[in-house]
Amino acid sequence: MKFNDLDLNNWKSCDINTDSLWLIASRDKSGKHRNIYHGNFIPQIPNQLIRRYTKKDDLIIDPFLGSGTTLYECEKLNRKCIGFDINESILEFVLDNFGINFDNKRYFLGNCDNTDIKKVDELLENALNKLESKKS
């Protein structure tokens, strides 16, 4: 079963980092990446992982959405995304400032305390229904 869209016949020309240590010279600040929120990681990390382990239209779940680094990489790479965060104001910031169409069936954001498993299950069920995806 193929779990990504990479062409293994041309792996040497692929820009996926295959080393065990990723040396990334500088943060990608292009597009919607603004580095405005504490604790966010550089966009190259979710970009590498998403391309390595998923295919177009696969669903990514980010339980600590923050300023949306993974969400924007999902948008750029044509993946669906469910994002949760405990900080309602950062979710509002993402919704208001980054021009992503949340009315379609590709993205879902929710305010959630990830330590409340009942709330997580409820919100995840709502998100999967909205995105017309199934639990597996």
UniProtKB/TrEMBL annotation:
SUPFAM superfamilies: S-adenosyl-L-methionine-dependent methyltransferases. GO terms for biological process: methylation. The keyword Methyltransferase applies. Coiled coil: none annotated. Residues 15-92 form the DNA methylase N-4/N-6 domain. Pfam families: N6_N4_Mtase. One of its GO terms (molecular function) is N-methyltransferase activity. InterPro entries: DNA_methylase_N4/N6 (IPR002941), RM_Methyltransferase (IPR001091), SAM-dependent_MTases_sf (IPR029063). Keywords: Methyltransferase, Transferase. This is DNA adenine methylase. The lineage of its organism: Bacteria, Pseudomonadati, Campylobacterota, Epsilonproteobacteria, Campylobacterales.
